[in-house]
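Before the break, one more example. Copy the sequence into your notebook; we will annotate it together after we see the structure.
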Amino acid sequence: MVARMRSTQYPDTWKDVDRLILTIESLCRDEQHHDGANATIVIDSVKHFIDMSLRFKTRNDNDAYVSHHIQIFVCAGAAAALVMLFLSPIRDNKECAEKAIQLILNPLADDEVKIELRTHFVPIILEFCILLFSKTSADNPLYISCGNTLRKTLETIHVDRSRCFNYAQGRVVIQGLSLFVSELGRKVIKGLEYSPQSAAASFLGDVSDFVAFSNPMCNAIEDGLGGMDHLPLCLTDLHSCYVMELRTLHLIFLEMLGKIDECLKKMEISAGEIRGKMDDSFRSGCGGQYLSILKALNILSEIYEGAEEKVQSVLRTRQVALDALVTNSSRNDDHLWILEHKDLISFECRRHLAMTLFPELKEDYTRLFEMLIDRDQLLAESFKYVSKADVKDLVGGRLFMEFKNEKATGHGVLREWFCLVCQAICNPRNGLFLACAEDNRRCFPNPAASDANPLHLEYFRFGGRVFALSLVYNVQIGILFDRTFFLQLAGAAVSLEDARDADPLFYSSCKKILEMDTDLINSDALSLTFVTEVEKLGSRKPVELCAGGNSIAVNSKNREAYVNLLIQHRFVKSVTDQVKAFSRGFSEMLCDASLLPFFFRSLEHEDLDQMLHGSDRALCVEDRKAHTKYNGYKSTDSQIIWFWKVHIYFYIFFQFATSAAYCVGNRILFTKLWNMFNPSTYRLCLPSYKSKSKMQESLQIITQEHLSCSFGLQ
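Here is what the structure looks like once it is written out:
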């Protein structure tokens, strides 16, 4: 040993590590009592090792010195010795080991130096994870702490390429991570073989760890291979130094994907046997983990050629099960990855995931945001309330709405206010928006007249807030966004086809230019240059589409560029400020304002149509009955039977109660008491009428008054 220590570049490292291991062996041999002096030596040795790591990092620009220093700690068995001490039955030994390991997880107080050292300590932390995983349970606090540190460090390395591993260190990490993830994967595969009812509780922890480490594993492989340009890999033509690890992971990927496909198939069969409803065992048991497993497989699929298609095939084939799992999942962002495959899931599924980006409405009536609005000053007074309100009051409490000199209150009135104020915002007479010529329900920002009002940008911000709140409160307001407006909110480019509905005449003119005979357009018969005319409050003025546009004639070679510049000027540049202001207001209602483009990209344009307007399918009584729940009533009670028999008034009554003319598959809850509000449920408070005729008479009065003077009782 002395000869080896003297011949190495790191004699102090070997000396310190050997001392640490010998001391731990001494503590573990004498398990009858704890030696406080030896415990102090253990802690001091770890501290000294960390100090030496810092000195190597400070004195040498070459990270290889630190890397070799770290490898000695692992190869000599110091990490394994500390884990062995942690597993000791003597409490003081366990506490000593845990303190020493925590020192390595959090080596220094200075954040920047801590991150630098953690980067080099990854092989040691990985060794801790592997050993603790095999010797303890997944819920062991020290194992969790090591795992969290490892994941965060690897994510930091992947984001900050200046902290990448050197070749030797990276190879050790990838080999260790591959071993770890593969072992986790095998345990998950084994857990999938059990039914949801009989699966072991440890399965949940195994899934959690497999998912948590799959992403850093893929990041490490990506970095080790030189970036995404080298992915995906073809297994028949592997020249990587990680051939064994990559092949092992691929086998895990294929086997797990096959198992999850079988589980989803069983789930669909189970749902079919109980008439389309998902078995509670899937909702509350292992079924909740299936989406997490699919997420990990989706990440792994990026490594291998053809693997993404295999994942998409399972998602497409098992769409029924996927939709059921998503729509019954809790509100968290763990499942947003599914929106990468939004064409493979249903509208309800996309809607559910997109709405998780908004704060959840809580049943808290201690925090009311009250509005008293004069119908004659609807837009101006609503603007004062909403534009000046704190975001927390709008989405953290509960909106309470009354119209001046009217007795009616409740959710029906609130829904009417949403409809009226959104229609006022988009009314062309108010100058903020224009209606599409082909469909006056659709609107887009007015490029010519909106700035006539000095507060127009604040009104656009107010509009963004109101439209977002209408989604949060699940109100179909009857207004639709034109495609050009929708694409800008999503951060996407606008093409000529997208502008067809917004301005049919503009669309037709551009199409003619693009399809015109080459010789005719080259003859300058149209006398077109890269200039357009802008109308502003009745006057028109020329504007160049590009620098020197007035002297550039449109011909067959540049006409596509000319049309593209026209589109950008007409539908994008001319309304940039308005769209930004609307986006700002809308994003303020989200959990994270930066997610605004993602929210709109996660939806199809038609999805937003349904959310803002509802289905074009008129209300169906049988469909409503199928989605109805009763609180204080039974479906066999006389009042319920009478209600469905007098459904001639149902359509108008439903409009009265909900301010919605169309439906998006929501439920009705009949109750005797008005006690709670669920934005996905239309609540009808039905008195205990004494006869069918009395019920019919009352509903008729309500609907007649609604038609004559809305919700107001004049």
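Residues 659-680, 707-714 have pLDDT under 50 and may be disordered. The chain is about 60% helix and 5% strand. Try to locate both features in your own notes.
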